[in-house]
Here is the input.
Amino acid sequence: MTPVQLLLSAAGAMAVGVAVAFGVASGTVLSLLTQATIYAIFALGVGLLLRQNGMVSFGHALYFGASGYVVAILLQLKAMPAEWAVLVAIAGLAVLAFVVGLVIVRVPGVAFGMLTLAIGQMAYLTASRSRGLTGGADGMSIDWPSTLFGLPISLITKPAGLLLVSWGSLVLALLLLALLLRSRFGAITEAVRDNEERARFIGIRTLLPRAAVYALSAAVTALAGVLAALNTGFISPESLHWSLSGVALMMVVVGGTRVLWGPALGAAVYFLAKDVLGDHAQHWMAIFGIALIVVIVFAPEGLSGYLQRLWTRRPSAQAVAPAASRTTPSTAPSTTPATAPAITH
Here is the structure.
């Protein structure tokens, strides 16, 4: 898609979000949609790492939960305004992830996933036992000010307001990432992902782009963590647990990474299944697990890749049909009289 098409798509998506926010009267439905949107941003961060680096992280809950803790601690200490606390949380974790990424992206395959899992669980245990700073296992409340970015906090924390803020953040993140991945940076990271040795042979420094992708995915995940803290007004060590990373990874697998919005689609499917199946089955995760296996076997590119394949196949099939009708030879019998063979004596 061209930049103009991306901008038009983003404007259309924002219009859909505004229509849903003001068209749905149920606060429960709006809260569910807000949660799904926040986790869509979380899954987008995990999926970005898998899409551009080909790496699976089991520790991205570290950045999801740590962003909430950073904001909560800075507001508790009254160190800076809330707006700066939000920006410092996202930017600071991105810088931290870049430094960590310079070390861990060198580790290939499963070892990288286990290393991210170990780092994430270290943060989880630290938050659980640092009672004086983080409240320990009980967590801590976030004292948001009366206004945030010039808007009353009472307006932002309404169900419709939170959905608009979360949806706008998701659309903006998708737009900026789509524009970034269209640039030379996206081409370099894809080259490194596909064949790092060949990319190094043609003069590309492979370490910095991979660390930059890891930091970028951490920043997107931290944005989701800030929105989750704004939604609940509370943060606990459970936000740092590896199981949240596993849930986000399931969303990525279901949605797929063939297109950028695939993980967001996976998050929507996950929360829809959780809401629908949870009302009728106690062990709904087992049913979702079976569906996950079906997707992996029959649509390894995820639901987004399957939908994209159907969409691209449809126009080509419509274009082939008229061409086939024009090139089909006529089956009508010939009216040209046959010439008798000459008889020689």
